[in-house]
Amino acid sequence: MNAVKIGLDLGSRYVKAVFMEAGQMQEHRLYDTLTFYRQFGRKVHDELVIDQAALAWPAYQEIVATGYGRNLLRVAGGRTIPELRAHVQGALAQTGLRDFTLLDLGGQDSKVIQVAGGRMVDFRTNDKCAASSGRYLENMATVLGVDVTWLGQHWEDPVELSSTCAVFGESELIGRIVEGHELERLAAGVNYTIVKRVEPLLREMLSPALVFTGGVAYNQAVRHMLATMLGVEVIVPEYPQLNGAIGCAV
């Protein structure tokens, strides 16, 4: 019998699929969310039917899905698990730790989860404001005329950006550009805004080890600022953006 298990994370910006066999990831794929639904998925009787032939997925034994928001569709032919559970399981599998705080900054939401003895004991989520998400960084990078990789390399001497709203933050950033601040300091200010948004939540559930997942975990500046501000070890797993999908497949 084929022992491949597919973990599917239906995110707000990207759909992540991992293919696991005997506890080892054999392959992973990343799809733009809108493209995925338009080309490969359709809703039938409150289920998401996926055109697996068009995706050329390998034969599998089981598919387990999770995803963004409270209204996740059940995947036809598979089962669905809660998003928080998937992310905790992914972090446990990727790090081997049992006690930590998990920070997941995704495309449009943020999650802080306290894990003790391998179990979730407390959590906070924010899916109503984009100011601590990957979408915020993408938008601000566009305003600055840089890519998100370059943006994530700057943390020194950040320009103060007081707005905590993603929409008003763009206007404020344009104002700072007009004032003539250096591009590197403006980039650092954008990154610092992300850290300021999540700091209060993290301090409520702080552990000596902070596991950082989601696409924003690739941002070097945010990692550096978190470690400096909180005085903890920041651990980024090998596949931070795939963490939820891995949690479905283990």
UniProtKB/TrEMBL annotation:
Q: Which GO terms describe its molecular function?
A: iron-sulfur cluster binding; metal ion binding
Organismal lineage: Bacteria, Bacillati, Bacillota, Clostridia, Eubacteriales
> What CDD domains does the database record attribute to this sequence?
ASKHA_NBD_YjiL-like (cd24109)
Matching InterPro entries: ATPase_BadF, ATPase_NBD, CoA_E_activase_dom, Dehydratase_Activator_Redct
Arranged from A to Z, the UniProt key words for this protein are: Iron, Iron-sulfur, Metal-binding
Q: Where is the ATPase BadF/BadG/BcrA/BcrD type domain?
A: 6-249
Pfam families assigned = BcrAD_BadFG
Database matches in Gene3D superfamilies: 3.30.420.40
Tell me the domain of life: Bacteria
* Protein name, per record: Putative CoA-substrate-specific enzyme activase
The cofactors it requires, by name, are:
[4Fe-4S] cluster
